[in-house]
Amino acid sequence: MLRFSSERLSPGMVVGRPITDANGRVLLTARQVLNERYIKRIQELKIPMVYVDDQMGVQEPPAVVNPVTISKATKTLKQSYQQCAKTGKTNLTSIQSQIDNIIDDLATNSNILIGMTDLKSYDDYTYQHSVNVCVLAIMLGIDNGYNRSQLQTLGTGALLHDIGKISIPLEILNKTSALTDEEYTIIKKHPWEGFKMIKNSTEIRSLSAYVALQHHERIDGQGYPRGLNEGNIHEYGLIAAVADMFDALVSDRPYRHGYNNQEAIHIVEEIKGTHLAPQFVDILSKHINLYPPGTVVTLTTGDIAIVTHENLKDHKTPQVKLLFNSNQQVYHIDYPIDLAAASTISISNVHTPADAEQIICLYLSLQKNLQPNDSSH
Q1: Can you identify the CATH homologous superfamily of domain 2-53?
Q2: Could you give the residue range(s) of every CATH 1.10.3210.10 domain in the chain?
Q3: Where exactly does CATH 3.90.105.10 map onto the chain?
Q4: Contacts of 250 (CB under 8 A, 6+ apart)
Q5: CA atoms of 24 and 20, how far apart (whole Å)
Q6: The predicted structure's pLDDT at residue 79
Q7: Residue 252 half-sphere exposure toward CB, CA atoms < 13 A
Q8: Are 236 and 207 in contact (CB under 8 A)?
């Protein structure tokens, strides 16, 4: 299963995952064959990405957190934000059960390897981003030996880390061009606003509020809102900063594709020790799959391939399927390679999501137009 930009959809493609609108209503079910009318409607609704059953043998790995858990948490968080925006009051007890569900899912998964390729809509970015930050933060907390009470406190703060943004005008939050100094000053207020909202909720532990307050602090003291250095940032704040940064990098935004996992980890590693706490970056790196299924790579042979199966024992040596040879000629027959068994072949480059999509579309179009008497490479 692969995801395609709505602009690249073509008639005959088969929907891989149900397509839903911003309210969670199913527009098209899985296995539905796309036609021109469906594609036009998807584009009119500004649905950015669609999962497609690619028939390329890409195996979707089991989710470390049940998609139903993610969906419920996102919906509950959205309702909490909307209620807070309307009434000015934070009745946030409804999210506690969602935190427990996420903890339970992660705690029962002994080999957590996260691909972070879930589809995100632009309109619901704040909510879905917050749920992902919560998942990542709890994962880091589990690896750091936290007990359930600590995970609940950390998870609640991570889920609500951006709630202060409800006080920020939407035209600033959704701006695609560079922010002015005045707009950036307004944005920088959201940790304080979130801190006050959570602090005023008697149902939530006060330490959760500090996650919202400190998730943009930097260990070198150059963050905001208070410019704290590492010794004055709570450990939960350090964890939330790592989770927030990584998910923001891999998320699709209206003005750019998300970075692939390798690019995102590289960026995070570059600011380890200045922006982010090294010990939690190291834990994150251990649990992120650099080459999740669907990733397009160049091999040391010069071939371009797509990752079809992950390798849980060594995520640097997945199984791949060759698409183009070093002369940019398409492979007309299936040519799988298990990199764990091919000691002389390795991955030399990972293509950006935009380039990968273009490569896959070209491959599929060439395969579709292949005549029976064409020779194979």
Answers
A1: Molybdopterin biosynthesis moea protein, domain 2 (3.90.105.10)
A2: 67-287
A3: 2-53
A4: 116, 117, 258, 259, 260, 261, 264
A5: 5
A6: 85
A7: 20
A8: yes
Place of tokens 């000691």: 343
- CA triple 106-112-113, angle to 5 deg: 135
**What are the pLDDT digits (tens) for 53-70?**
877 888 877 778 887 888
Residue 26 parent element (H or E): strand 26-28
* Per-residue b or e along 314-325, where b marks 16 or more CB atoms closer than 10 Å to that residue's CB: ebebbbbbbbbe
Per-residue pLDDT of 315-327, as tens digits, reads 889 999 999 999 9
Q: What are the CA-CA distances from residue 278 to residues 218, 222, 226, 273 (Å)? A: 12, 16, 21, 6
The pLDDT of residue 19: 83
What does the alpha-carbon distance between residue 335 and residue 323 come to, in Å, rounded to a whole number? Answer: 8
- Could you give phi then psi for residue 349, rounded to 5 degrees? -160, 145
The model carries a pTM of 0.85
Average pLDDT for 261-266: 92
Taken in order 234, 240, 245, 248, is the CA torsion positive or negative?
negative
CA distance linking residue 171 with residue 189, whole number of Å: 16
Strand partners, 2: 52
2.40.50.220, 3.20.20.80, 1.10.3210.10, 3.40.630.10: CATH of 67-287: 1.10.3210.10
Give the torsion through C-alpha atoms of 96, 98, 101, 102, to 10 deg: -100
* DSSP secondary structure letters along 193-261: HHHHHHHT-TTS-HHHHHHHHHTT--TBS--SSS--BGGGS-HHHHHHHHHHHHHHHHS-BTTBPPPPH
